[in-house]
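#lab-general

N.A. 3:47 PM
ok so I finally got the sequence cleaned up, no stray characters, all 240 residues accounted for. can someone with queue access submit it? mine expired

B.Y. 3:52 PM
send it over

N.A. 3:53 PM
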Amino acid sequence: MKVRMAVEQPNKDAFIEQVMRKYHFSTEEKEALQQVYEKVRTYMAPYAIYRINTRMRGVPLLDAEQSALVAMTLGEGVDRLQEYYEQEHALSESYMVECVANELLLQMYADFNQSYPKFHRRYVKRYVFVGEEIPLDGMQKLLAEVYGRQPADIGQENDITANEYGVLQPSKSVVFFALLSDNPEQHCQGICMNCGNLECENRMQEARQIQVRMETQEMAAAVEPEQKLNYGYQRIFGQK
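B.Y. 4:20 PM
back already:
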């Protein structure tokens, strides 16, 4: 099923303020950010396409649980807008497009989660992303499955496509499995970083995983105090 996603902002000013805080824009940049946001709204064509009752052998979660295979995108127009700014050497505006589009794509998760039960009476409770338990080189086959076509037939106008390494086009696109539940209390609000449900088991599980990784790194640092952390841990611990 293919559905158009509105991704409308009931409070545009609050959305702009959120982007400014998250990506550290200054007050002087607010007007330019607002203009870029309006441009993105004009260029984007967001939609989601999904196939229900999917299974994937060899991935325990997807063998045991009800799930839907989902692909979502803001559309290729956002990429064209960003490319235009880059060609004009307007790098600040290009970066603003990136930030605004990222936040709109995050919102699409919440919008999808809210709309899915209205049609299917089941609730999205968790995501399984390609690249985690599912190899990236399987992305093309998953897109063919969600569109209901052969892999060679993917690439029509407005299709989400992937190369052999799993890189998606349009760039502001995502493919994932939505694990489903009949229990409304397991209804996921969206991506954890944007979610206010502090009692959610998924959120607590993610926090536990982060804590384990941090403790492991601290023990390693005690043994090898001069060890350089990888980029991800550098961002967590503030190492330059």
